[in-house]
């Protein structure tokens, strides 16, 4: 009887034993080859590794609280009259757009001659817990836009926005359309009434009040855990099996570590802004229904009359096409374009295939909608603004 | 109780009584031995206050312990203090005190027996599910009695502090229970993937196809199955309910813990989160007002 129990117990443990066996077999494979790989892996891991991210030089030209505005150093003669203001999401960091030389959207834009400003949301602390969605859209984004416009003596600029930064930029463009010349949205969720992605299903069932009451700001680690749980098999097992298989390959290791550094560099989310976003977007879908009010003003999508390019990924598991493809039918613009690429949420910015497609498409689209290059006056004026800062990337 | 259950209950009572008897004898023996060890230093030690040469009697120690537990019981307001007071001997008292613990053990043992009993059937058992059930039983049983003790009305000057402390303990236990259940739910796809791979191989063999022998191909088959089962789980109501429950318990625990910490911090020259949040809110509102005034001033200046 005892032996039967033991046998049964070992049978029940078999799934876990098999998981370990399969992973080991996959990693180790041929023993001789494995030993050779281990030797090389030792050299790679103990040797110098280049894993820095966001190395393209920039100046911090404006700062309000923790929020900074980066201005990248130009590399060639200016292509466009209008500078491009990039608004990233508050989830993770804008460094993803400049992951490494050769895989950098920022680099692609600079090489083409675009004048790039990028908002860095920084790391919210408990002090920031009361900052709401309005403070971010009509506060930080609006102030940064005003600063850039004043600096260049312009009335309008181009906005390129990413993910949740895109959602906030849509709100900004609807509230201040006169300041936006062209709007480029990438993997931007604007419709939240769908079950295409798990994130949507989960976020709708969240009680934001309880989370905000418990944490003040929502910890980045909790957000990251949520993202990992979207696909545990791939993101928590297969990914690292792949890493172990290629641990002898220096380039692979460097790229992998860079990506890990970016993924787990997760600032907390300001509590009130999180509450507003979950409640008004995920639960009530106010934006696409034209029911959102920010700072006492209705966010009317019909006010968006500037040209809009809306790019999203066919295989995006975080912001699926269903979250993106309704916007252009709701806005007032006549010059608008949806572009669905064969890629995922992150791949759209970092995969070598989309590097050839994504950046150049935006550059072409903006160039076609910019005034003649002869009129270019990109030399920024000195703006006497109290919050102007002057740190460089190296100092920052 | 149904007629069928009575014999089982009787048998269990007999087992229980035997076990308590054994436990009591063991305790008495331990008390005797402890007394013997203490005897010399207590009796002979200078300034001990005891009469030199007089050794504590094991029965006296037992009586002392009984009085101690009786006092503890009256303070703690245990469910049936009368039962304890009516206990005239150490074995009776031990029996009363250890009853809840014994209850958990019986439940766990029963589940374990059911689990191992099923082995004879040859049916594949779900380890994650069994562990989930056992953990649930443990926490629920524990919570049942534990909660009663933690919710005993507190008295006196410290009552509110004690209540907040008890609440933090209770909520920590609830959260731990929910978290364990959540993680056990996440184990289920691992088991399903295992059986899925086995079925797939059997199917291939049945169809006359060559079985997957290459470890890489087998790994790919397994990881694909695992991903599919996770996708099913993560969209299920069971997962959503467990996730929601875990987050709610987390909230309750953190709120209770914060209350307790604030009590502690009040006695130290350290501002609490509540103090700081009030300050931050004021600062936030003031900054908004200043910004608005700056904007108006700029507009008026133009």
What does this structure look like?
By secondary structure, chain A is α/β, with parallel strands linked by helices. Chain A has one domain: Rossmann fold (3-Layer(aba) Sandwich), CATH 3.40.50. In chain A, 45% of the residues lie in helices and 14% in strands. In chain A, strands 1-2-6-3-7-8-11-12 form an eight-stranded mixed sheet, sandwiched between helices. A two-stranded antiparallel sheet of chain A has the order 4-5. Chain A is globular, with a radius of gyration of 23 Å. Chain B is mainly α and 302 residues long. Chain B has nine helices and no strands. The longest helix of chain B has 48 residues, at 159-206. Chain B is flat and about 85 Å long. Mean pLDDT of chain B is 73; it is low at 1-5, 40-53, 72-84 and 118-124. Chains A and B meet through helix 1, helix 6, helix 7 and helix 9 of A and helix 6, helix 7, helix 8 and helix 9 of B.
Task: Fill in the keyword field for this structure.
A: alpha/beta, Rossmann fold, 8-stranded mixed β-sheet, two-stranded antiparallel ribbon, 12 strands, 14% strand, globular, B: 302 residues, mainly alpha, 81% helix
Shape descriptor of chain B: flat
Q: How many distinct folded domains of chain A?
A: 1
Discrete helix count of chain B: 9
The CATH class of chain A is Alpha Beta
**Outline of chain A:** globular
Note the quaternary state here: heterodimer
- Assign the CATH superfamily of chain A: Alpha/Beta hydrolase fold, catalytic domain
Largest sheet of chain A: 8 strands, mixed
Helix content of chain B: over 70%
User: Which regions of chain A contain 5 or more consecutive residues with pLDDT less than 50?
Assistant: 372-377, 384-396
Average pLDDT number of chain B: 73
Rg over C-alpha atoms of chain B, rounded to the nearest angstrom:
30 Å
Show unreliable segments of chain B: 1-5, 40-53, 72-84, 118-124
Distance between the termini of chain A: 68 Å
Biggest protein-protein contact in the assembly: A-B, 46 and 48 residues
The first-to-last residue Cα distance of chain B is 87 Å
Number of strands of chain B: 0
